[in-house]
Specification:
Layout: E1 3-13, E2 19-29, E3 33-37, H1 44-51, E4 59-64, E5 67-68, H2 73-78, E6 80-83, H3 95-105, H4 112-121, H5 137-149, E7 155-159, H6 167-182, E8 186-190, H7 194-200, E9 203-208, E10 211-217, H8 218-225, E11 228-234, E12 250-252, E13 258-262, H9 269-278, E14 283-290, H10 293-306
Parallel strand pairs: 3-8, 3-9, 6-7, 7-8
Antiparallel strand pairs: 1-2, 1-4, 4-5, 9-10, 11-13, 11-14, 12-13
Helix pairs in contact: 3-5
Length: 307
Amino acid sequence: MDTILSVAGVSKTYASGHRALEPVDLDIARGEIFALLGPNGAGKTTLISIICGIVTPSTGTVTVLGHDAQKDFRSARRAIGLVPQELSVDMFETVLATVKFSRRLFGKAPDDAHIEQVLRDLSLWDKRDAKIRELSGGMKRRVLIAKALSHEPEILFLDEPTAGVDVALRRDMWRLVHKLRAGGTTIILTTHYIEEAEEMADRVGVIDKGRIILVEQKAALMRKLGKRELRITLSEPLSAVPAALAAWPLKIAEDGRLIYAFDAEDERIPDLLAALGAQGIGYKDLETHKSSLEDIFVDLVEQKDAA
C-alpha cells in the first residue's frame, strides 16, 4: 500500500481527565476514499482534529507525506484540506475573496484559473461577489469546501460535509468527490448518511467511544458481516416452527413471515421450499434482504456495548 497518511498510537486525554480517544493506529492509502463511521461523541472529530493539527495528541505521532505533523507542521498541514462541521468564515466577506485568502494562507501563489474552476465545480461562480452572510446554509457549506480545495491539497477531510444540506446539493458534492478522487486526491470522510459511505468508500473504519472497532475493505466487510434473509409470506400463519423443520434456522417475524437466514454460498433454498411443501405449508411471496452497511454498523456498535 502506498501510504500517504499514517497515525501511530495517537490518543487524547483532556485536562479534565476525559479520555476522548484511545490509542489509534491507522494507515491511509494514496488515492483512496476512507469512511470513518461512528455515533455522536465517538471520537471522529477528535481524531481528524489531531491529524489536521488543531488538537495536540496526548500520545502518538501523525505522519503526512513523510512529514511529522507536530515537528514539521507547515509541510504536513499544506498537504491537507479540511471541511469542518461548523461554519468558520467571515460572513461579511465575499465568496471569491474568502477562497483566494485561504489559498494565500498556505503560501500558494495566486492562481485565478484554479479558484474559478473550484467555484464553478461547486456552483459558486455566479455567487462569487456575494457576501457569505447572504448565502443559504447549503451554499455556505459549499464555500467551506471551496476554501479547503483552494490550495490544491493531496488529502481532503470531509467532516459531516452534507449535514443539513438538501438532496440536490448533496449530489453535487458527491459528484465533486468522484472528480477529485479521479484526479488522485485522497479523501477521508465522516458521515451520518451511511448509504453515502456504502456507495463511495473503498475502506470503512468504525469508531465508538474513542476506540477503533475495525478497519476493513468495504466489500470484504459486507461479505464477512453482511447477512442475507429469505422472507417468506405464508398462505396461513404459523404459531410456531414445526418440529420437522427444526434443522433449518427459521424464525417467525412479528409480521408473521417466516425468516430464513443464509449466506451468499447457500444453495439450499429450493430444498427449504420443498420441505415447507412436504409439511403442507404454502406461501404467497418470497423476498430476499441483504444487510446494508448501516445494518452492519449498528450490529457492531451493539455487540461492542454488550461485551
